[in-house]
Amino acid sequence: MPDLLTTGPADGPGLLLAHGAGAAMDSRWMDDMAARLSARGIRVIRFEFAYMAARRTGSRPPVPRADRVLDEYRAAWVKAGRPALIGGKSYGGRVASMVADSLAPEGLRGLVCLGYPFHPPGRPERLRTAHLEHLATPALICQGERDPMGTTADVAGYRLAPTIELSWAPDGDHDLRPRKALSGRTHAQNLDAAADAVAEFARTTGSQRS
Description:
With 210 residues, the protein is an alpha/beta fold. The protein has helices spanning 28-39, 50-55, 70-79, 91-103, 152-156, 180-183, 187-206, and strands at residues 4-7, 14-18, 43-47, 85-89, 110-114, 139-144, 164-169.
């Protein structure tokens, strides 16, 4: 597996995308989203944190605290050519959100979080939002309406910076998956809608630099 996995047009706005805590950069979810974003003109560059890369060798290192992999994310951004946008799925998006403002002076233009873990499941009092209250980088968070790490009702009560835009996946869970029998929607529809929102965000925020 290469250090960086790139899909999409070479001249499209670049998006460095990190994986979630428990699934690799080439998981089915990441593959599906990368394919959708690539089809919408975005150059998606995926990478893995060291703990996840180590798991490919058979070891099982634990997931590090998010604040312990910030330098890994910064290094991946430089290696990827300093793309205009950064982000990630869940844990990866949280780490990206923690480094975004520090990269803005070097050319970063925007942040994309796909299922942000506002709090651990079942622990709504343990918020991970302090830095989001003052985030200066334009950001898009695509979130499932019933995400156990931040539902619509949860997020409505948070203080978030005005730079943050939310795109809600109807009846979606942490993977944006709806209950089709109850909502009438499919997972593909929610993923497509999220990809559309990211593509629009990329056009307006990240297109001036790839």
